[in-house]
């Protein structure tokens, strides 16, 4: 069963999500929108849509003119009842697509931080995989206000809106379920200068933080990915 993946920034691929999807026999097509790959104008034969993250904000149309097209695609898949998953920037684009607010340039939330489900999240077929809550990887300054009709599913100490759902199968996750230990290690290397600007001791802390949180975070991320894929 095939779904569409939109990449919005360099070195921000599917990571752990790809491992789960591949292992469970799913197929997908990837559009590297940040490199100028053309986006489809309709859902075609795809059964779902995954919109990945990026360092830009969800309103940066001047520098990233593909963003409004992504919002159009999100609305199209949603209207057709095809599952949508937005991660970090992707979640902010879902909020934008349905009239929610985009709040920019807050203090950074970075590293493995706990995400806790709301009462609705505990009953949700995807977010229930958080159990009572657990660590997921974060890297963002922006957040959102909920669109009309959205159901809040999870929160963290720094960010009230960590996950929400629209309808039955459109999910917006602020945290990075796809960033497993290997991906976090890669980000630590390739984005070293960006990380140093806000968390200068991260290279020294990384291994201890990974030992403390990564195994559980990877298990939760894989379970969330598998639960969303089951919606296809």
What features would you describe in this structure?
The protein is built from seven helices and eleven strands. It has one domain (2-180, 216-230): Rossmann fold (3-Layer(aba) Sandwich). The strands form two sheets. Strands 2-1-3-4-11-10-9-6-7 form a nine-stranded mixed beta sheet. Strands 5-8 form a two-stranded antiparallel ribbon. The protein has 232 residues and is α/β, with parallel strands linked by helices. Strand 3 (49-51), helix 2 (67-79) and strand 4 form a beta-alpha-beta unit. The chain has helices at residues 16-23, 67-79, 89-97, 119-123, 181-190, 192-198, 202-230; strands at residues 2-7, 27-32, 49-51, 84-87, 102-103, 109-117, 134-140, 143-144, 151-155, 163-166, 170-173. The model has no long low-confidence stretch (mean pLDDT 97).
Q: What does the secondary structure layout of this molecule look like, with pairings?
A:
Blueprint (H helix, E strand, L loop, with lengths): L1 E6 L8 H8 L3 E6 L16 E3 L15 H13 L4 E4 L1 H9 L4 E2 L5 E9 L1 H5 L10 E7 L2 E2 L6 E5 L7 E4 L3 E4 L7 H10 L1 H7 L3 H29 L2
Parallel strand pairs: 1-2, 1-3, 3-4, 4-11
Antiparallel strand pairs: 5-8, 6-7, 6-9, 9-10, 10-11
Helix pairs in contact: 1-7, 2-3
């Amino acid at each position: 069963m095939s779904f569409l993946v939109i990449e919005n920034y360099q070195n921000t691929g599917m990571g752990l999500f790809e491992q789960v999807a591949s292992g469970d026999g799913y197929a997908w097509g990837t559009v590297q929108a940040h490199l100028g790959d053309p986006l489809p104008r309709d859902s075609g034969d795809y059964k779902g849509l995954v919109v990945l993250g990026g360092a830009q904000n969800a309103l940066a149309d001047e520098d990233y003119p593909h963003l409004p097209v992504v919002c159009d695609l999100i609305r199209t898949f949603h209207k057709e009842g095809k599952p949508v998953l937005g991660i970090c920037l992707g979640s902010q684009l879902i909020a934008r697509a349905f009239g929610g607010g985009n709040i920019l340039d807050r203090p950074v939330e970075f590293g493995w931080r706990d995400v806790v489900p709301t009462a609705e999240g505990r009953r949700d077929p995807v977010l229930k995989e958080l159990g009572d809550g657990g660590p997921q990887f974060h890297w963002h300054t922006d957040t959102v206000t909920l669109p009309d009709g959205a159901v809040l599913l999870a929160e963290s100490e720094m960010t009230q809106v960590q996950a929400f759902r629209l309808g039955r199968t459109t999910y917006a996750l602020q945290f990075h379920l796809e960033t497993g230990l290997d991906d976090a290690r890669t980000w630590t290397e390739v984005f070293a200068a960006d990380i140093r600007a806000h968390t200068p001791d991260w290279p020294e802390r990384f291994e201890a933080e990974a030992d403390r949180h990564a195994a559980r975070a990877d298990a939760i991320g894989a379970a969330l990915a598998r639960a969303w894929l089951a919606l296809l």
